[in-house]
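Morning. Coffee machine broken again, so started the prediction first thing and wrote up yesterday's gels while waiting. Chain of 102 residues, entered below exactly as on the submission form.
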Amino acid sequence: MLNRSRLLRAGGAGMLDKMVPGYKDKIWARLPQGLKEQQVRSANSAFENHIKQHKTWQGYLLAFKDMEKNFAPSAKFRKPAVDWRRQMERGTMHYGRWYEGP
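Came back before lunch.
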């Protein structure tokens, strides 16, 4: 027998379910078998499509993450000096002569 899972949120169900308990199960039992199978198949294929879409995007993102580490600046071309604007922003600016020390 095919059963559909239901999402139960806080408080159980709506007012109709409190007035007529289990009405969804009663309606489901009276549906033709072909319609039940079609609805279950539709719900399953929608779920599978979301999984497939996630795997596709995950592949793209992982490929980009592998490529992303190549964008890091190379130490080979690093400039050892820091310009005065960056020193001002960092609070490391030294006012005075070069021979007076930090």
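The first helix runs from residue 15 to 19. Going to sketch it on the whiteboard this afternoon.
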